[in-house]
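Bumping my old thread because nobody answered last time. Still need a sequence for this structure:
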């Protein structure tokens, strides 16, 4: 590693393989002291229905001590078990689990040590910490292993666009749930580039905006065993006022900049594959951002204040290097934070993307990486001297 890169340290170590998962979840508590982590004893294969992983707290001010607080059987390699701190809380941690023949979520209070169970699995939480939305992880696993959960068969396996599956709300206090957007209704929305009525449909990648008024979801479909097609939609928090943000078929990673603006890697006929800024609920042409510096797909987030974009790359084809970097929005300057080779076995479903996450104070970031040769582990990188 170059000496010009900022300080980095592992905050987990073998023999368990540790990771956090997706880049749009809150890994670090409001005090910036504790990091959430998942741990498992194997790699390089799909999870099976009874495979359990451990969940732990890392005390970054206490020699990175890892303290287990739960296990779960509802997880995948890319997004884990949706483990995250509940917004607007200093004590509550939420994750998904399995109970008999259905997926649920649990909330653990770090102060009382008590855990309570909610009847549905969660995908994204509103910023006020009172509501979650979720979708059918059984169907995701059937349609795209690596993002859903194994062990429970999709009851709509043979139905291309089910009426009784889609996006639901979940009250985190009462457990009350309601189906608010169905796969069937979204599949019927006209697609200008072809007839998709005979395709098989599902939803993935749900994310509330920054004030909880609307959320994003990706509508994906494929014909037979063909490639996936994607369009991005948004909706009000109650599922009303559906809006197609992008329907060119290739939307990938995205993040809300503010309640009305979305940054995403996508194809658009104006400038091909790039990061674009989209204005929600308008038909305005998206504007490219960082076209000469953020030139490849990555897992993007805005640091607090929206002056910096945190991003990464997939492994390069020749050296399998993953690059972590910051992009300064006003100046267009890019600052590389590290180069992390991804060993050959980490491909496909069980690849180890960096998935960079930032701390609440914006002073450090964490990544998942397998570059050190002891399996996937979590690393902390301090960026206070840069921003």
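Sorry it took so long. Here it is:
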């Amino acid at each position: 590693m170059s000496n010009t890169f900022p300080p980095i340290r592992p905050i987990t170590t073998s023999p368990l393989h540790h990771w956090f998962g997706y880049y749009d979840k809150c890994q670090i508590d409001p005090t910036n002291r504790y990091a959430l982590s998942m741990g498992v004893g194997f790699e390089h294969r799909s999870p099976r229905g009874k495979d359990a992983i451990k969940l732990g707290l890392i005390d970054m001010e206490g020699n990175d001590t890892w303290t287990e607080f739960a296990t779960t059987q509802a997880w995948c390699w890319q997004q884990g078990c949706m483990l995250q701190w509940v917004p607007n809380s200093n004590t509550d941690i939420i994750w998904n689990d399995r109970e008999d023949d259905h997926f649920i979520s649990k909330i653990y209070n770090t102060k009382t040590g008590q855990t309570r169970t909610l009847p549905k699995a969660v995908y994204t939480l509103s910023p006020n910490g009172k509501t979650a939305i979720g979708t059918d992880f059984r169907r995701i696993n059937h349609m795209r292993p690596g993002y859903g959960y194994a062990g429970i068969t999709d009851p709509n396996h043979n139905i291309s666009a089910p009426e009784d599956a889609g996006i639901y709300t979940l009250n985190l206090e009462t457990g009350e749930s309601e189906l608010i957007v169905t796969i069937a209704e979204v599949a019927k929305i006209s697609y200008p580039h072809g007839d998709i009525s005979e395709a098989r449909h599902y939803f993935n990648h749900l994310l509330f905006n920054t004030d909880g008024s609307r959320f994003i979801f990706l509508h994906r479909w494929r014909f037979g065993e063909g490639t996936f097609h994607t369009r991005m939609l948004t909706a009000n928090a109650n599922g009303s006022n559906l809006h197609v943000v992008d329907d060119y078929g290739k939307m990938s990673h995205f993040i809300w900049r503010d309640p009305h603006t979305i940054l995403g890697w996508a194809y658009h006929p104006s400038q091909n594959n790039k990061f674009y800024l989209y204005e929600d609920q308008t038909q305005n042409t998206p504007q490219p951002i960082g076209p000469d510096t953020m030139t490849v797909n990555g897992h993007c987030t805005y640091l607090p204040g929206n002056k910096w974009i945190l991003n990464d790359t997939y492994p390069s084809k020749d050296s399998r290097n993953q690059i972590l970097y910051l992009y300064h929005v006003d100046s267009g300057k890019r600052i590389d934070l590290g180069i992390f080779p991804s060993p050959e076995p980490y491909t496909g479903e069980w690849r180890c993307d960096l998935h960079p996450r930032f701390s609440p104070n914006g002073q450090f970031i964490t990544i998942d990486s397998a570059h050190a040769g002891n399996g996937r582990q979590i690393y902390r990188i301090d960026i206070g001297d840069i921003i």
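Helices lie at 137-143, 183-187. Let me know if any region looks off to you.
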